[in-house]
homocysteine desulfhydrase
Amino acid sequence: MPTSESDKRHFYTQVSHDSVDTRHHGAISMPVYQSSLFAFETHEKFDEAMKDVLAASVYSRGNNPTVMYLEDKIAQLEGGEAARCFASGMGAIAAVLFALTGTGDHIVCVDQAYGPTRELLVDLSNRFGLEVTFIDGTDTDAFAAAIRPNTKLFYLESPTSGMFEMQDLPAVTKLAKTHGILTAIDNSWATPYFQKPIALGCDLVMHSLTKYFSGHSDTVGGVVVGSRELLGLIGSRSYLNLGAAMAPQTASLITRGLRTLPLRLERHQASALKIAQHLASKPDVVRVNHPGLEQYPQKELADSQLTGYGGLFSFVTRHSVEKMKEWATGLQYFRIGVSWGGYESLVTAGAAPAKFNADGSAPSSVRLYIGIEDPEELIADIDRSWARLKEPSQEAISS
Ligand SMILES: Cc1ncc(COP(=O)(O)O)c(C=O)c1O
């Protein structure tokens, strides 16, 4: 069930409103507790706190009040019982894998998941005896076919952040539950404003907070949200001892970004949709991977799971990779760079994945992130550089 319109309206209240907290002298903005440790008046109180270092503020690799504030806020937005923040999105993803799976366990992962996630899974399987199967996440039957007696986790990312493929979350999570398999999803692309995976059946939700939550391309962070029980396991098995905790300054910056999350997402969504439609009308663009477009192959699923789309999408062209890199370099307002979720538009070009270029007629893929610049100026920029591209048939002749 998609997030209702009233849920979306309430989201604005959730990011803005806090109940009165008298512990911080009435500070309206959560202070930065720039402290590595917390001291106690008596040894008795210290001993009491040491009984559960994951509940009390004892040491900032465990609990820091500035970080805990952000954790509570994100748990609320995702509709989860608890959350843990990490030094990066990959820190959060690694913590889930290390806490919930081990040697001899099997993980089923979508084949278009974020590259470093796939690399980590391959590495864990090569060096620590974890079994991993990558499947086409658009095909729910492929999940069913991949299940083994030792399958512990379905690793999901919907939509994926390169080619924007979706998984049918209610169907896949139902299948997982009937086999006692946990589901963890990377929800960085949609954010809880546009997709609520826990309500759709997922056990754990991860984010790269580096992206929309932070919103200003000035910090790196991650989070895992889920039940108290699972977060307890992650806390004791991987959060505390792997040591990838979020720093309090980072939590403060991400909290500041979170206050305007829905406002920014509406802007990214409106501009990106306009630009995606514009690109879809170009004859040398083979397909635009944007779940909001009518021609998106999983449109019905997108409408049933998402209430919006944000600013990141990709397209596949008939031009060579080299030519699309020249096109990208010729853009004025798009910076060439990884990541997304900030104020600034970004572009990267590369080879289209084999499954999108089966007959060799669609060699290049471009990922665009649409920032908060004027979309008309971005379109003019795209067209100016596009005008310098030759016909794909002429490229081969001149190169
Ligand atoms: C979809 C997705 N998930 C996870 C990550 C990892 O996050 P981080 O860079 O904060 O470690 C990224 C980073 O680009 C991403 O795009």
